[in-house]
Amino acid sequence: DAKTTQPTSMDCAEGRAANLPCNHSTISGNEYVYWYRQIHSQGPQYIIHGLKNNETNEMASLIITEDRKSSTLILPHATLRDTAVYYCIVRVADSSYKLIFGSGTRLLVRP
Amino acid sequence: DGGITQSPKYLFRKEGQNVTLSCEQNLNHDAMYWYRQDPGQGLRLIYYSQIVNDFQKGDIAEGYSVSREKKESFPLTVTSAQKNPTAFYLCASSIPQGSKNIQYFGAGTRLSVL
């Protein structure tokens, strides 16, 4: 699975959009981008995933660049409950195998 | 409610003691996983099972053992051979097919050594 690079920490104001970047320059054609988050002392929670098209669900939007070397997770209206560590993971979808969690981005939503 | 239940939430181990962490899921998922998380770190895979009565070692299996006798259950035993067991243990399950190979996690068990 390709390696990902994320900023160590970010912050944003409550009610504003949070834009979390991820670089995955060595991504292969059959690898998807997955985002999970982990609120303190809880298990990770799946947010969204995509291959090459932009994706949106009730939690977030995922924007993947045309060359697929980077992506951005967007939380459109961040709340205090969105304070968590956000992990960007690249993997082959059919692999029933481990998720490689890096250090992630620690997002702090300020009141 | 469908989901993954881990118990206990907190567990203490004495020196030389084996302890077992429980993981039960009612999502009808075929695959189950155990991860370990140390403070400030990402998750590392201990063991995984793609089907009943079969399991494979992950990256850090030494000092741990598992069983998969039922689809719903995947208990993890931390043996006395694991010299540094203090960590946050997370169980997950998934349907390992296609692009929706999403892992769902339990709330975790925090293990400490007395």
The main sheet of chain A orders its strands as 1-9-8-3-4
Percent range of helical residues of chain A: under 10%
What order do the helices and strands of chain B follow?
A: EEEEEEEEEEE
How does the major sheet of chain B shape up? 7 strands, mixed
Annotation, overall tally of beta strands of chain B: 11
Radius of gyration of chain B: 13 Å
Taken in chain order, the helices and strands of chain A follow as: EEEEEEEEE
Mean pLDDT of chain A: 92
Number of helices of chain B: 0
Largest sheet of chain A at a glance?
5 strands, mixed
Beta strand count of chain A: 9
* Proportion of residues in extended strands of chain B: over 45%
Characterization of the model:
The complex is a heterodimer of chains A (111) and B (114). Chain A is built from no helices and nine strands. Chain A is mostly beta strands. Chain A starts with 8 loop residues before the first strand and ends with a strand. Chain B is built from no helices and eleven strands. Chain B has strands at 4-7, 10-13, 19-25, 31-37, 43-51, 54-57, 64-66, 76-78, 87-94, 104-105, 109-113. In chain B, a hairpin with a 2-residue loop joins strand 5 (43-51) and strand 6. Chain B starts with a strand and ends with a strand. Chains A and B meet through strand 4 of A and strand 4, strand 5, strand 9 and strand 10 of B.
Topology:
The complex is a heterodimer of chains A (111) and B (114).
Chain A: E1 9-13, E2 18-23, E3 31-38, E4 45-50, E5 55-56, E6 61-64, E7 70-75, E8 84-92, E9 105-110
Parallel strand pairs in A: 1-9
Antiparallel strand pairs in A: 2-7, 3-4, 3-8, 5-6, 6-7, 8-9
Chain B: E1 4-7, E2 10-13, E3 19-25, E4 31-37, E5 43-51, E6 54-57, E7 64-66, E8 76-78, E9 87-94, E10 104-105, E11 109-113
Parallel strand pairs in B: 2-11
Antiparallel strand pairs in B: 1-3, 3-8, 4-5, 4-9, 5-6, 7-8, 9-10, 9-11
